[in-house]
Specification:
Elements: H1 2-6, H2 9-21, H3 24-31, H4 35-49, E1 54-57, E2 60-63, H5 65-85, E3 99-104, H6 106-123, E4 128-133, H7 139-145, E5 150-154, E6 163-170, E7 172-177, H8 189-194, E8 196-200, H9 210-217, E9 223-228, H10 231-240, E10 244-248, H11 249-252, E11 258-261, E12 270-276, H12 284-296
Parallel strand pairs: 3-4, 3-5, 8-9, 8-10
Antiparallel strand pairs: 1-2, 5-12, 6-12, 7-10, 7-11
Helix pairs in contact: 2-3, 2-4, 2-5, 3-4, 6-12
Keywords: DNA-binding, Transcription, Transcription regulation
Domain HTH lysR-type: 7-64
Family: Belongs to the LysR transcriptional regulatory family.
Length: 297
């Protein structure tokens, strides 16, 4: 280790060429250095390795036994170093074998991952994709530790330490089953409050959300009779009961079991975005994945 601290890359490059050329003049030409500079390098190398390394011979210089021992390990080490510092190669999805991990709620799965999935499988058939549960409070730590490669979350609650790219802006609509007697037309505020509602509470067990806050600001309250942790559960409930729910528009768009009407009050929407750590920001494969998800929404 002490010898390694005394070396620099230029000395090792000089030794590598000298072990090929066995000639200071030719080595200097290949290295684009002066002959005296190469001689100085050789003197320094002899001191570090405590060996002559190259001795005068009838046809140039001949390597010592120590130099012969160094030849292959040195070449392998320099080649490995060259690979390590080489620019990142272009990403070829057709040949890729990556395993990606995306942290998302069921909403992110349905509105971002699902629309992109067919294209991902077609373009990168050798890759794998794992969806893991999103834990907003742990996003920074998990991103930096590689627990996930990409997270799908609303911008408002996301930590500023991560890179972000907005995907779309979402708004809420009132949804219920096809043929729901209370949704033949857009309800009044009084009719809206009289309906029995499902609320999606990510924290679990909550009965007050953004809709209830908007109602409270105008002195009203609705009947929330069921709280569930997932949007997909809420939609299943709507399809089989007379309960209604304020749901993100993209989640219910095109669902043949549900009908949608405008709510009688304005409920703030949100911006959906993807988030990632600095460690993968410039990675060509990661950039490609982000581009595919962005193109799908």
């Amino acid at each position: 280790m002490n010898n390694l601290r005394r070396l620099d890359i230029n000395l090792l490059l000089t030794l590598d060429v000298l072990l090929v050329e066995h000639n200071v003049t030719r080595a200097a030409q290949r290295l684009h250095l002066s002959q005296p500079s190469v001689s100085v390098h050789l003197a320094r190398l002899r001191e570090i390795f405590n060996d002559p390394l190259l001795l005068p011979g009838p046809r140039g210089m001949r390597p010592t036994a120590r130099a012969d021992e160094l030849r292959e390990p040195l070449r392998e080490a320099l080649e490995a170093l060259e690979r390590a510092v080489a620019p990142a190669s272009a990403f070829d999805p057709a040949q890729a074998t990556h395993s990606w991990k995306i942290a998302a709620t069921d909403y992110g799965e349905s509105t971002v991952v699902l629309p992109a999935l067919s294209h991902l499988r077609e373009q990168a058939p050798g890759t794998r994709l794992a969806i893991i549960d999103l834990t907003p409070a742990q996003m920074v730590k998990q991103a930096e530790q590689g627990v996930f490669d990409l997270a799908l979350h609303i911008s408002e609650d996301a930590p500023p330490e991560l890179h972000r790219r907005p995907l779309f802006t979402e708004h809420y609509v009132l949804a219920g089953r096809i043929g729901h007697p209370g949704l033949t037309q857009a309800p009044s505020r009084e009719q809206f409050c009289a309906l029995e509602h499902v609320l999606v509470s990510r924290e679990g067990g909550g009965f007050f959300g953004v809709t209830d806050k908007a109602l409270a600001e105008v002195g009203l309250a609705r009947k929330v009779v069921l709280s569930v942790p997932h949007f997909l559960m809420a939609m299943s409930v709507l399809a089989s009961t007379d309960l209604v729910a304020m749901l993100p528009s993209r989640l219910v768009r095109g669902n043949p079991a549900l009908q949608v009407v405008d709510a009688p009050l304005s409920v703030p929407g949100y911006e959906m975005a993807m988030f990632w750590a600095e460690r993968v920001h410039r990675d060509p494969a990661h950039k490609w994945l982000r581009e595919q998800l962005l193109a799908s929404v």
